[in-house]
Every structure is written in structure tokens, then in C-alpha cells.
Amino acid sequence: MNIDNIKKEFPIFSKKIHNNDLVYLDSANSSQKPQSVIDRIYDFYSNEFSNVGRSVHYLAVKATNLYEDTRVSVQKYLNAKDNKEIVFTKGATEAINLVANTFGQKYLKEGDEILITELEHHSNYVPWHYLRKNRGIKIQFAEVNDEGEITIESIEKKITKKTKIIAVTHLSNVTGAILPIKEITELAHSKGIPILVDGCQSAPHLKLDMQDLNCDFYTISCHKMYGPTGLGILYAKKKWLEELPPYQGGGGMIKEVKKEEITYGDLPNKYEAGTMATAQVIAFNESINFLNKIGIDNIAKHEKELMDYGMEVLRKNNSVRLIGNPKKKGAVLSFTIDGIHPHDIATILDEDGVAIRAGHHCCQILHEKLGLNATARASLGVYNTKEDLDKLNEAINKCKKIFDTK
Amino acid sequence: MNLKELYQEIILDHGKNPRNLRKTENFNRDARGYNPLCGDKVHVFLKLDENKKIKDISFEGSGCAISMASASIMTDLVKEKDEKDIKELTKDFLNMIKEKPDISTKTLSENDKTKLMSLSGVKQYPMRVKCATLAWHTLKSAITNSQEEINTEKFD
């Protein structure tokens, strides 16, 4: 695997940021896009554009086939049993809202409990909070340990007879902890509880197998997978998509509409109301091709090496404190520097073209637990190198110099 | 872009050792400010006399060097000023931090003006302007007794 060649596929790396080469360490926020994905959007609008699933003319048939091709690619990428288990959404956030809303409508009543964790991104908390407000359900939080992990025991401790669904992240966007999803799913199912997994951070980095994980719902953000914005994926076991009510109403999701009654379309149309992000869906097939071409196992190996290197470099740097030390960890390096606020760190690093994120990373519950208002986060993608991490370290040293800390 | 202009000595000094970082005893006005984008918080306490002149001002809070320095410098400058002067100074400062090259108010000494102008480098960093303005919006809320928590997202 030749990173130089991979990097060349991303046109953004030929740009200068404040006269420096770009060191992009914000892929957990959103990844950069390879030329093939960018070209596919342009090409589709230029040569093949039509709306999908409606008209019978040549372009409509072609666009519909391309759109459905991506669904099959996603099914294969996730090793889902059936391509009807793949629903396109406007993002992972919408995918979680879809489940919270429809599952809540059908199955939840006052006093019922939803179990999430202290690691969750706001997008896997706020949608459930609406149910707390509107339906009087309770939200339980499995507690994060000192290493920034969620253990199977911490989940088990918070399961009660009233737990109706468990919603957990696969990979924390702050501590990098990889949760034991298969075990949590087995535990949940042994108690008759369905499980939703927020896979935003895992999908670009880990090999995924829905049939092996056996979870009920899995949500994905395409723009973190070298794909376009405005697109997410909900994987759901077919029985759930059949049982749950539709989410949004509109064109494309119906079977028959009469003045007295409306019947809904078959899967997955039932959940894809209105004109979808067609160009993004079609271009996302190129993202999957890109990931498959390199191989997710190779990507995972490369990122693990980088992360180990990054942790080693940052650990040696006095006054840098790494946040979390999970045994199984994804490509996320969150840290603080004594005496320098993360926002100041991010501004100073940016001057050298080093792009990181600073703040609470949409995880205020976790930051409150850590006793921190904010952290700095360097997150990795397939295009990163050890040199990037050296530049990060150099820029951190520059911060320390400006702030005169040791 | 110029980091040296942003992180001037005065800012680093006030950021590290904020003045008036305490709670005024017997304060009669206060207001809270919050920047939801970064989590910076400030709580400003005032003791006004019968002529609405500031006899004491202090703040509590946490945040980046820019927001802490801005709050520290602000509390240093506004003591013994009355409501009218403070409103004018706030307006002046907010204009300067966004677009105007200088501050026009006559109520500051040259030394104080230099301190305040040390924040002018923020102009080049649009994402950081709200760090610098948080304390000032909060002061305005405290002095007008609006009882409103300041949220920087509500301002341009």
C-alpha cells in the first residue's frame, strides 16, 4: 500500500494552507474526497442526470439502476443479508432520528427505558431525548471507565426490565474506544432487547459484517467514508423495516393514495420519501470502490500503525495529556496541553497547515464526566503518514513556545 | 494571518493571569455568557453605585486565552466608568473587533487603549471573534440588568 499514491488521488492535498502543505487530521469530523468521487458527481450531472424511480425514459432508467447499484455495493460492504435492508438517509443523524421516531411511536410508552452510553455523540442522544420529552421515557447512561471505555459489564449494570432498546456507538469519536458490539448485541438479545449501533466512526476504519454483528440497526455517515455530504445509511434488519411505521411521508414512498386511505410502498422505498440525494448516492459507489480497492484490512493496519506512532510521540511530549487509553482503540488521538486551551491549540496549529478539531466534539456528556470543557483531537484517515504526526508534534511544540509552557 | 498579532504579550499575560477573576462581594448586577460553539463560559459581577458607576467588577469563567484575556482586560478598563461610558465603549470595542481599524472613544487613557487594541488581531480570525466579544456582551447584559443569559450565537 503506497500512501503517496493514495494521497495523490485527493486533489485537496495539492493545495497550500497558509503557504504550508495540508496536514489533515480531522477525518473523524469529515474525510477528504478522492478525485473519483468528485468526478462521479460531475459526470452524473453532466451526462446521466435524471430523477430516479419514477419516469420510464432512458435517463430515468439509467439513473435508477446506478442508484440501486450503490445500494447493492453498500449491502456487500456491510455484508447485509438483503439489499432491502439498506436505506439511504440525509445523514447518520437522520438515520438515528428515523429509528428513534418510528420505534418510539410503535413500541415506547411512559416509564420505558432507553439505554445509551456516556460516550455517545449528541446525534445518538438528542433524538432519544425527544422521546423523553414527548413520551415520558427514561434515558439510562452506561458509564465510561477511566480508560474511556464502555465495558459489557457497564452495559449489563444499566439494563432493567423496562429497557426497550439499547443504542451505542461502535467507536468513540473522542477516546477512540471500540465497543464489544457483538457481545453487547448477544447480551441485549438474550434479554429480548433490540440494539442500534452508531457506526459513524467505525465504518471508514473497521471491517463490518452485519450478519456477524447481528445488531438490529446500524447507522453510517457517508461523508466520513471519503464520500459526499448529505448522505447517510441506515442498515436495519428487514423485520424491523417491515414492522416499523414510515418516517417521513411524501412521493416515492407510497403504494396507493386515496382520499380515505394510503398504503405504503415496499422496502426500502417506504423509508425514502421525496427526491433523494441521487448524485451523492451514485458517487458514493466510488467511495466504496476506493475503500475496496485498498482493502479495509489494509486501511485498518495502516491507521493502527499511525495511531501507535502518534501515541508514542505525544506521550513523550511533556504537558500533552492523551484522553482515554482504551485497549481496543480506533484512529483518534484526543489530547489536552497543560495551560493551553484547545481552541488556542487549534488556531496555532492551523497556521502551520495542521487541521485538527477543538471543542467538545458533540460529546458534552463525556466532557462533563472528564471534567473538561474542551479537548483537542487529531483523527486519522487513510491518507495520513507518520510525517503528519511529526508535524503535529512540531506544531504542538510551537504552541508551547508561544504560551511559554514546558 | 499573523499569530504574533493574535497572541500578543498582553493577551498571553492576561490569559494566563486573568485580573479580577473572583466574585465581587455584595454585587448588585450580574449576567452569564456562554459560547455554545466552544463551551466558553463567563459570569460577570458588578457593583454599581447610585449613579450607575462601576465601583467593582469581577468575573468567573473558563475558556481560551482570547476569551479570558478579553474578560480580564475589560474588567480592568471599566472600573469607575458609568453606564453611558460603558455602553459607548462596548459599542466601540465590538466595532473595532469586527471591522474598524481603531477605537474612537475618548474615555480611555493611552495605556488602556493599548491594552484594548491588543485584541485587534482577532479580526483576522473570524472563528475567534466570539471568544473576544463574549465578556463584553455579558457586561452589557449585566449593566442593563436584562436578566438574559448571553449566547454568542445570537450575535453577528
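Residues 3-147 of chain B form a domain with the Sufe protein. Chain: A fold (CATH 3.90.1010.10).
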